[in-house]
UniProtKB/TrEMBL annotation, chain A:
Source organism of this protein record: Bubo bubo (Eurasian eagle-owl)
3-hydroxyacyl-CoA dehydrogenase C-terminal domain ranges (all copies): 521-616
GO molecular function, one term: transferase activity
Record-annotated active site: 487 (for hydroxyacyl-coenzyme a dehydrogenase activity)
Site note Important for hydroxyacyl-coenzyme A dehydrogenase activity, residues: 475
Places the protein is found: Mitochondrion inner membrane
Keyword annotations of the record: Acetylation, Fatty acid metabolism, Lipid metabolism, Lyase, Membrane, Methylation, Mitochondrion, Mitochondrion inner membrane, Multifunctional enzyme, NAD, Oxidoreductase, Phosphoprotein, Transferase, Transit peptide
Site feature (Important for long-chain enoyl-CoA hydratase activity) residues: 128, 150
Gene Ontology CC entries for this record: mitochondrial fatty acid beta-oxidation multienzyme complex; mitochondrial inner membrane
Name the UniProt record assigns to this protein: Trifunctional enzyme subunit alpha, mitochondrial
Family: Belongs to the enoyl-CoA hydratase/isomerase family. In the N-terminal section; belongs to the enoyl-CoA hydratase/isomerase family.
From TrEMBL, chain B:
Principal cellular location given in the protein's record: endoplasmic reticulum
Protein family: Belongs to the thiolase-like superfamily. Thiolase family.
Location within or outside the cell: Endoplasmic reticulum; Mitochondrion inner membrane; Mitochondrion outer membrane
EC numbers: 2.3.1.155, 2.3.1.16
One Pfam family here: Thiolase_N
Top class in the EC scheme: transferase
Catalytic activity: dodecanoyl-CoA + acetyl-CoA = 3-oxotetradecanoyl-CoA + CoA; decanoyl-CoA + acetyl-CoA = 3-oxododecanoyl-CoA + CoA; an acyl-CoA + acetyl-CoA = a 3-oxoacyl-CoA + CoA; octanoyl-CoA + acetyl-CoA = 3-oxodecanoyl-CoA + CoA
Name of protein: Trifunctional enzyme subunit beta, mitochondrial
CDD domains documented for this protein: thiolase (cd00751)
Keyword annotations: Acetylation, Acyltransferase, Endoplasmic reticulum, Fatty acid metabolism, Lipid metabolism, Membrane, Mitochondrion, Mitochondrion inner membrane, Mitochondrion outer membrane, Transferase, Transit peptide
GO biological process, one term: fatty acid beta-oxidation
Translocase recorded as keyword: no
Amino acid sequence: MSCGGMWCRGELCRVGLRVKLPCLLGSWFMVLICCFQVNTLSKQLSSEFTDIMNEIWANEAVKSAVLISSKPGSFIAGADLDMIEACKTSQEVAQLSQEGQKMLEKIEQSPKPVVAAISGSCLGGGLELAIACHYRIATKEKKTVLATPEVLLGLLPGAGGTQRLPKMVGLPAAFDIMLTGRNIRADRAKKMGLVDQLVDPLGPGVKSPEARTIEYLEEVAIDFARGLANRTVSAKRSKGLMQKLTDYAMAVPFVRQQVYKTVENKVRKQTKGLYPAPLKIIETVKAGLDQGHDAGYLAESQNFGQLAVTKESKALLGLYRGQVYCKKNKFGTPQQEVKTLAVLGAGLMGAGIAQVSVDKGLKTILKDTAQQGLDRGQQQVFKGLNSKVKKKSLTSFERDSILSNLTGQLDYKGFEKADMVIEAVFEDINIKHKVLKEVEAVIPAHCVFASNTSALPISQIAAVSKRPEKVIGMHYFSPVDRMQLLEIITTDKTSQDTAASAVAVGLKQGKIVIVVKDGPGFYTTRCLGPMLAEVVRVLQEGTDPKKIDAISTAFGFPVGAATLIDEVGVDVATHVAEDLGKAFGERFGGGSIELFKLMVEKGFLGRKAGKGFYIYQEGVKNRSVNSGMDEILARFKLPAKPEVCTDEDIQMRLVTRFVNEAAMCLQEGILSSPVEGDIGAVFGLGFPPCLGGPFRYVDSYGAKQLVDKLRKYEAVYGSQFTPCQLLLDYANNPSKKFHQ
Amino acid sequence: PTLLLTYVPKENNFPRSFFKLAGSLVNITSLLAVQPKSKKTLTKSGVKNIVVVEGVRIPFLQSGTSYADLMPHDLARAALQGLLNRTSVPREVVDYIVYGTVIQEVKTSNVAREAALGAGFSDKTPAHTVTMACISSNQAMTTGVGMIAAGQCDVVVAGGVELMSDVPIRHSRKMRKTMLTLNRAKTLGQKLSLLSKIRPDYFAPELPAVAEFSTSETMGHSADRLAAAFAVSRLEQDEYALRSHTLAKKAQDGGLLLDVVPFKVPGKDTVTKDNGIRPSSMEQMGKLKPAFVKPYGTVTAANSSFLTDGASAVLLMSEEKALAMGYKPKAYLRDFVYVSQDPKDQLLLGPTYATPKVLEKAGLTMADIDVFEFHEAFAGQILANLKAMDSDWFAQNYMGRKSKVGAPPLEKFNTWGGSLSLGHPFAATGCRLVMTTAHSLKKEGGQYGLVAACAAGGLPKCVLGP
């Protein structure tokens, strides 16, 4: 290692690591910089890292070390998931966890201070590595986030995280971090005590802002590393009064027990016992705090191993991978990037679509036919953005600047510049046709016309189009700014480029996108249809709405089935049920649609009308059952069949119909893959995430068992339960799985 | 702003120089778009030559010292009176007065008019006030230039004033709302019910923002980040600050600061010189802790400009008018340009952008400039600008240029000190920069001078002087 200039570095390259030894005119800087070149913790990285750490401890000249990443946008984004998935037994996974624990413990116990310099995602194992270091410096950027997302994959932080976090940020905050897995921004992390210093991102200098910011982070980190080594800087953080009080209280076993109990109750209530990971996290933290260091670490690795082989974890991992898959545009880059978007109809959906577009920098025209509706829509966009200002994730200036992308209007001015028009007008084929014709008269040739409809077939809408290759369906879910899914529907005539354009816009809006073929109800609405028909049937058989809600949420649905109907709107449900009923006949039978119709007649339209199955009042949390329904339910009452009316049977009646219809969609080619089917069901319809979606559920429950259930109900109710051919094929061949 | 001053033709013994304003003024670019015909005079066909006849300022004082009990218009008055005394210009000749100010005293929101009346100008002379952060008096001057060029006026007084010793502190919005509603309350009952709604938090005062409105970042914090972006070290900044103080001290002792006029402060002694010039030592400066980015930043109290009270004024005329009245112009205001850029990361980089623009507009190169006067908000900001001007990468990636313009040579750069040492009463600095350039050109026998400054909101500009 030669020393030519003021600032030269000896370098030592490995696959995943680069080590730099800066020196100043012959005299060694006493700081070693260890630079990650990959962003996941793999076996190889661990072993290289361990080697280098050993060298650090052996080398007298090195007094401290800095850990930094050369991958832009991430420090370490977590452990290598393939590595965990490759393990066959829980022991193997536990072994991995133990190795990780040892490696990080070595850093923690190092006599030479180690500083983590964090820019970009510091997730899971990355965060565990950071908190094992003696000091943490993070860039105060939007892309810098710290989190332990393991719980979202059905796992727990398995490299000492469950043991270090409570000591670092206090028990309540540690539970919050680990049980929610939520992202923590750098400034918040500083307040919590998760990082020690913040570095502001820099603007352009004689290098690009990104490159210079990383370099500056490294410089600052080196300063602190030297300061720590020669004791001019103390790694001890001065805790605030609140934190001191909390720590003091948590030291009392009785208080701690109370905290465990409260958290555990909350977790049980929210997960309905369907997710094992949160409870294991609590158990592991408890083991460390109550039984000491060794017991804690042992519990962590054992529980990590156990969790990794649960079917819940596999389901969640599948969803994670599916999400990654659905964040890619398989149609490639569209010829023309959409820069100006026009949204027709400023209702809930239209304004929601506008909101998720303007903040991504799309120039958005929001058009309505009436000033009042337009005002409401614009206010919705403002309110959505302003709530981010209140949460401090946006400044008021950024809000204003984002809002300058929005133009509200009543006419078609400026549509000649639109690259895409999304209509979100009333669900009536005649209105859709009228709008389509009007729009086509004013838009340029390349402009895509997308219809946001939940059930009207796109080809039917496109029938009046002069350019059907430019017509596509974009089915958003309400509330648009919160629901992650976008279902894109292509017709036989839709061009590849139009699809590419729609997917690109969806991805830009931050959506998880599935692309399905056109047909009545597409995929999502179509799966929901039979299940809701069954809900009606169950209601007719005398089960009350509260009970149905309880049964369905116990199965893992985030929203009860009766409440779901209220949320969707009884009129909309009626509309869709009628259309789909016509298209699919008996398979959508079961409940009586007349029940819905009577509800509409009485004005029980659901939440929007204040009355549906429940009564909705502003500010009242515990809603009561709508007693007006009693009469209606009584009128349509049918005798219950005791042989299929246990809670479990009711659950299975709902779910099997859902799954059967999903399989039918795959069979008919509406769906192009089971992955998209799972993602669509979970993110659009709330299919229990712990089951991983209808197809993964078939895999884990067993196609044969599922078909048996369907046959059992078929015998009682008839053809709506007849299993589709695809399910039968899978049932006949046990080795066939939707997900390998 | 950048101000470019030009030369004194020696043949007729008529000391004359030209100066040029460079900055980011979008609206008046067209007015000045005519290219100069010859490099020698930079005279534009069809456009009047505009000259600076004279310019003065009262001594710049650290806030909270001798001017602490005055109001802004008092300082402006003193500067205007000083200008009248120095030039003996008949007051009825002055067609218009423009003044700049940043932090407005609400009682005298048109401070130009209040000060002019109090300074003995004619009550028939209209006056208005402009604001553009730290380049407010540059804006006042270029407004004057525009009026003369447009044939609206022949004689304009421009200036700027800032009193940082006293800034308006408001009641909170809630309190103001209550008080305003109280005005409309008719009965005692209504009044009492309003008063009863007042809560302790209503009394929390609202201080004038020290931060950029759009980014909520303070100027010092931005300067620290800028210095870091260009890898300007603490040592370099302290050295530069020390240079500024040392040069200012030399200029003050050598009697070079000719624009300063004494000010007899009511109830206090006459103030004759700037009181912020304090050459220190590197060692002492090194002891200071970072003021903004704690604990590892590089901008400290010693390498930043300090809070200052002061006022300045210049007398602008068309060349014909000045000559007809028998004045020897000190400088020709030749050209100017305003630019603006990203208020977050390039807030203080205006001079870098404006300098090449104004030079190109005037058909000059860096080598033609004999005197550079740049506003020194922070040592780090000056050094970052110098590095940016000297970087091909920056020129190519951010300025849309093929190559760098090059940094000004330090021997021609702020040789009589700058805002770091003389002080920086926001709106009064522009006139000081112009007059320093004019005096410096005369002393050095130079031809062209260039003035540049940056301002909050990311608006820098250039002015040029005699």
